[in-house]
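Protein Record: Sequence and Backbone Structure Tokens
======================================================
Tokens: labelled as protein backbone structure tokens, with as many entries as the chain has residues.
Task: work out the structure tokens from the sequence, keeping to the layout shown below.
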Amino acid sequence: MARSGRDDENAAPPDLRLVPGAVALWVGSLIVLLAGVPAAWWTAAVVLLAVLAGLVARPAGAMVWLPVAAFLLAGAAITGLRQAERAADPVTLAADQRSWAHLTGAVGGFPRQVIGGFAAPGTGAAGDQRQWRIPLTVRTAEVAGAGSTSTVQVAVLGTGPAWAALLPGQTIDVAGRLSASTFAGLPMISLTARDPPQLVDDASAASAVAGSIRSALTRTADGLDGDARGLLPGLVVGDTGGIDERLTADAKTTGVSHLLAVSGSHFAILCGVVIIVLRRFGPWTAAAGAAFTLVGLVILVGPAPSVLRAAVMGGVGVLALFTGRTRSSLPALAAAAILLLVLDSDLALSAGFALSVLATAGLVLLAPLWSGVLQRRGVPAGWADLLAIPVAAQVVTMPVIVLISGAISVVGVPANLLVAPVVGPALMLGMLAALTGPWWPDGAAFFAQLAAPLLNWIGWVAHTLARWPTATVPWPATPVGAAVLVGVTVGAVLVLRRRWGRLLVIAVVVGVVVAVVPTKVWVPGWPIDGWLLVACEVGQGDALVLATGEPGTAIVVDTGPDPGLVDGCLDRLGIGTVALIVLTHLHADHVDGLPGVLDGRGVGAIAVGPGREPAGSWRAVNQQAGERQVPVVGFRPGDVIGSGAVRLTVLAPGREFHGTDSDPNNDSLVIMAEVAGTRILLTGDIEIEAQQALLNAGADLDADVLKVPHHGSADLLPRFVDQVSPGTAVIGVGADNDYGHPSAKALNLLAAAGVRTVLRTDTQGDVAVGVEQGQLVVAERGATLAARSP
């Protein structure tokens, strides 16, 4: 009887009453975040005028839109007030000046290791130079001798074991240099500390217990082999520091990266198990147990915004799965979105928030329908749910993933289907290992060993499917591209409802496999041993990779125009960790590929020069960096930065250019990179004026390798090339481009200066410079991008 009532509810149309309000609140926040605080007041004025006009004219249905207008106004007002308060905070103002500050505040989460990060000079204990990022909610600040109160969030970067031992809820004193950073596209603050933190007030007992559980789990995981060693703490408590960089890259390619850290599905699985166990004691007992589990997991993982978001969405997912009430689950999802946006309006710009909402919507709306279809075809209910849930989540989140990465994971659905049966058992065994670790290490090791084969299966699936030909397909990372993908997806769902449609899809897939697999480019021996520099084939643009000497780790200088192309280049090099991304300037052919570098990789920081034009590119860089919690830092002449075998010295620009043919080009960062003793001059797109300024300043330009400015344009000074005196030149350029790059003048100048080797990505594809037996060697992978038709 209860089943009949549940079916009756699911047969009814979904309750959409709260959905327009949630969307309006989201849009109101977005307007302000994207257009600035003044947009809040313009939005309020326009909406109020529209409401007044509607009240006067009284058209049919006008009253229905009043609540929607109220939500839109609320979103704009709340976000505008918070943005204005943040901009006026004394710590924000001090960060704009890169001032030295003394801060007191509360630790907002467990420390996260910055993989490949750059330690500040003179920091850290001997033998432990690992860098950590700690979220800090500032209470008081002292800048230039003046004290003040503050409420901003600061990302503190500290080096040494004292930072790794911090717990959420502790109050600490820190001192260091502030700098403007970006998170979720918003102006935020980072502080690079030079000394260990000073403890002012200790954490709660619950936080201390959580810390001991996490530490014990890390020790337990050290006894495992393969990918399980890093996956165990990642899956159970969100500690991703031990996950292999290759697994990170392959999980991104195969669409299973949500399993490398705690997500909404983790909350749903654990709460679901608790509900199943306690349901015999009544619904209130089961609900209380689920709520206790949610709170406990938040404490264990750490109260970061992403964790709180995952907890809320996981709770909605549990409601949908265990009540079976699709109609009532959708209002719960809308209410959860409204609550989260009111508490933290910055989430409106968060790709993670969008993915959580969409994935939960797929769970609520599509998964029950598709599970029912499978059950009517004889599939057992449990297996039907197991198949329907990951497919629904993958389908509804594809448009957002495309906007982030510029690619579609062809293997995403099969990968999720293959790992779905082991995720729940692995998580439960891992949680048992975590909870028993502090007081029964042998028992924890036993549970961990049981979980290890399941965790290694997840790693095997990621590694294997990521190696498939065309595992990902490039797709335009634009709103239009996302809209087209939505249309294609909806069309595919409609077609698959028909038998002839399913046969057609099978035929198309087989045809594509037959056509594509034989043409897969395979170059044995790439990259060459001892490579120092690789210029990626990314079309008309620059994307350069510097080897740090640490396997799987590199520095990336510029990212080219296409996320998929630079991502493929890094995958071919086996790069899962990027210590630093340097954006020489903000033109599209140097920055639009940024999502392809960021997604699925650990990134230490993004460095930029003084230029902020084009403004749209600057906003995009901030947003993309913020979504992944990667700090954006400014480079100035004289800065010297080192990581592994790489030493970067910033040479220019000494001043911003005005009135030249291209000020952004001339404002490019110019960096001398020393990689294992080889000097490489990286020049961005500098033109005549910036080249002359370097010569006038007497900069030490002598280099073994020159990255030719501006893709080999004619704006190249002979004296500049002579001063560099390179033996090898590298030109990042697209085949048959509209600019005539590289110019005959530039090529002739290089030849006249005695440059022995000129490497070009348009004719040679990915090109590499390396060292063999003390001598520079070069290699090419072969061009794979076809020249454009005239």
Q: What stands out?
A: The longest helix spans residues 351-376. The longest strand covers residues 131-143. The chain is about 50% helix and 20% strand.
